[in-house]
Sequence to fold (408 residues):
Amino acid sequence: MSVPAAHTISEGKGATVAIIDTGIRTDHPALKGRAKEGPDFLQEDDQSESWYGEHGTSMASSILDVAPQARVLGLRVIRDPDDPDYQNSREALHQGSSRDGDRPFAQAITYAVDHGADVISMSLGSDSAWDAYQEDEAEAIEYALSKGVVLLAGAGNEGDVEQGEENIVAYPAAYPGVISVAASVPDGARATFSSVHSYVDIAAPGVLIHSADAASGGRKPVQGTSSACALAAGVSALIVSKYPELPPRQVAQVLKETASHASRGYSVETGYGVINAHAALRAAGDLRPEKPAAIGKAGAGVHFGPGDDGTPQMVSYGLDPLYFAIAAGGAFVGLLAVSGGFWLVRSGRRLQGEGFGGTAPGGPAAYPQYAQQPMSAQHNPYGQPIQPQQNPYRQQPTPPHSQWPPQQ
Fold:
């Protein structure tokens, strides 16, 4: 990621990164003096509990490892697994709403924008084929983009189809305007768990990331596109700190154009490759700032997704279970319709031949309504033990500014 070289240009001074997650422990040594906890959009009062902010604190430390002079703002919209009220990995992020109907996630984005965030890091995502686009969330994202705020999200941890993962389309990573971050291993290849989709834009290290452990006050190795997103958010903070007039589209542009395999082209596994903080900062210095614009508005320019920036229109990688379910359901209904029509024709002819007339009972059929499911923190970094090994991305307690990566 070329972080030490990047620090000769920027260390993130003056930049604020909002972390929409499980909340953060501002007293952790890796965060102390550089973190603030905002509102709890779950409307709870449990910040003093030992399990509070486990995932969010981990992400905050990774951001500050990359951008040591930035500040982070924690906004809680989901629960940690150790929270007694945590139900399951799809526990309702969408529960609760403000008077205007917006749900916690959308509220948190709007709050972050209105309270000075320059970057929003979202190390969370939907984990079900039935999770879907939410209008209030999309509007909140467009609002953030129109105000010049950079948004990043983890691509998802459902990419290991050989182990039964479903490689689902995950939000917020799939929303237009959000920089979607895949997880890479030390040689730059995709981590096996990292989801594969044509909305993946860039990659960042996502295995053996030594980040803050809220429970012990120290650090521990974690993995996931959550961590990759946090590291990329740190790089974004370096850029907006040095070049605050650059709009989100141009920040995304320099991240992609200077990534590890941008010259070789796009990949649905790692986007344009692993980000290079130093190269991105140098490229940003050559740009003339554009006027910020929301996606879909005049002047917004191209952004991500298939077809508008050179990424492929079609990608063959496993089956999207939502589309499969819809197709299977449609095929079943069609088969029933054909079979029913054939039976009616035969029955009608038989009844007419016997001198009877009439209609079969029937009417509109009610299809099940699939409720929107929650968005949860990316799988692991806490669920599976990870054996430390030699790794150039290893992160330890925040080092002196001249030392990178953090050492044990």
Summary: Residues 51 and 82 are 6 Å apart (CA to CA).
